[in-house]
Amino acid sequence: MQENSLFTNDDTHSQPLAARMRPRNLEEYIGQDHIVGKGRLLRRAIQADQLSSVIFYGPPGTGKTTLARVIANTTKSHFTTLNAVLSGVKELREEIERAKDRRDFYQVKTILFIDEVHRWNKSQQDALLPWVENGTFILIGATTENPFFEVNAALVSRSRIFQLKTLKDEDLYKIAWQALKDKERGYGDFQISFEEGALEHLIDVAKGDARSLLNALQLAVETSVDKFPPPINSKILITKEAAEESIQQKAVLYDKEGDYHYDVISAFIKSIRGSDPDATLYWLAKMVSAGEDPRFIFRRMLISAAEDIGLADPQAVAVVSSDATAFDRIGLPEGRFHLTHAALYLSTCEKSNSTLSFFDALKTVEKEKQDSEVPNHLRDASRDSDGFGHGEGYLYPHAYKDHFVAQQYLPTTLQGKIFYNPGELGYENKIKNKVLSRREAQLEASLEDAFVENLTYSPNDKAREKWLKRTTSERGILLEKIKNTLYDKLVLKRSDRVLILGAGHGLLLWQAFRETPEGYVCAQVDNKEQYDYINHYASKLDELNKPYIKRDSIENYIKNLDNDLKFEHVIIRNQFSNYSNVDYLFNLIESKRSKDGDIIIAQTIPREGSRLSSFIINPEIKNLIFKCEQTIYKHNKKGLCGWDNEDLIELLNKKNFIIDSTILSQKELRFINPTDINRWIDRTYSPTLEKLHIPFDKDNIIKTLTAELGNKSINWYHKVAIIKLSKTEPKTKLKKENKGEKEWKEIHKKIK
Fold it and tell me: Which CATH superfamily is domain 475-605 in?
């Protein structure tokens, strides 16, 4: 259901080509694969008609309004539109009343599309908030401005933000030919051809804007004949000259109040932080040529001098400050030398972000349940020294050699707490050893200065705590190491699609799920117990957000997936145990990899791990089991246990991938259950002894092994190959030192 609006299907040829060619459904929609590609969250929500409030953000001509039109054509809800430029609170109130009536009397939802939502002021946006919150409206907002700056924070927090990117040239080619071939809405009734370079020129000048391209294409086609439209099947040649005349080169705008303003200064500061003087000069020139206020640039450089350079070069603040003062005296244009001088100094000197350690201290203060007492020897002795002994015991540093004496300056409850760690570069490298040696002396002195109630304090022993928490096995530690190593090799984007084969109990699934909230996670499990286990944890998620889990063989699982559904990342865990089947299985899996996607394998290599015979004491039984293992683990690519990492790499090398391989060697304190022993002998060792025609007493073997190993923990060694396959050079996941993304964001919120 929808109203007459910009979405009205008024299909007349008097409309501009761009309006006529608006996609009517998702199949006609071209581009923005990262949000509406097969399997993406938004696509699934539109198809299931389960849309929640969303805001589309991106440059003009990228498909924001078009995407809203697709939703309008798809949904069963009532779809209504407002333009923030033309409508105000009065029109909004009228829509609210209509939406309430539809909900109360007809049980019909209302989707409200607001174009250019950033044009509404705060009070207008506030008027919308309660009706979005109580479900009267599902909001779809479209904006060219960053919603985190221009849209009410409460609205943003209740909406999913989808950023539409400038369209790629290949998308624009598809859009152009879609219009040229469409007989109903485009120019499919004519035989249109292009002089070499003509269409490329239109696409190049459009700069990723589909609307600009279609407008230029319409002008080029309709001015290339004397009278338009010509007879059906007429030939129309678009010359390069006609293409050049049909569109003017788009000027790059720099709006000092717009998002691009913040993006460019961000690029400038990040170039300084990244020690790239060339990029620093480019972004500086971009700002200066656009008329940016030099004082704004100096102000940001002063912050960077303390935040990004810090104590690696304490002179950085003085240099920028001096250049700023000189600029105030000289002005433009000569003052640009001082801008350049400061920018080049910052981009080429050593870097340290150790000043951010202040925010670690601030975080500690904020978390304190009660204020920590000032140690007695640090209190003001000028007021209460006689009655309370304040200041007693304070050691005056200037009275000692090198003006230093070891004593505690932190509150007792924080003794031993470390906030500042000097870096390895510049000035900090010079002072590092001195700072650390003095800290060690202060820590050694801490017990002398501690209050009595803290004399029995001992630090947490993390290894001991892990031991106490562990019951019968260290398997969890091994699995965590596999997961961390595997995900360190992956660079996940929020909109990525991830396929996990051999998901087990969810070891690799949930991290992918957390990191791809706008993407899609599909997982295959081998048995019902694993399926039930994962679904138990997924049961609280709504259907739209649940990962797709299915119990099936890999072959059937992949064949049942949508043919067009491709994945940016395919994760395979312990599915290549049968080496003879690897080639067939890999080719099947590879068919689900997207064009630039990668495949990552975590495969245990039994041949290179521990063997049961190593733990047996009884010489006769030990010899029998050892003979079995010589056969079981003999190098043989056809067996389950006879192949190794080199064999797997050799096979994968034939697939023309760039290979990044890591071998994990890990000890597991493994608890041996008597049922494990029975299973090993029944399934593996007994059949092997029979093949070797070696006489044996099965019951005696089980009895002996149960007596020696049953209900005991042994050190079992594993070797696991983590292999990443990609068609392009692997991207490196940069790690921020000692802090997670969330912590860094919290710090930056406080200093901006």
Answer: Vaccinia Virus protein VP39 (3.40.50.150)
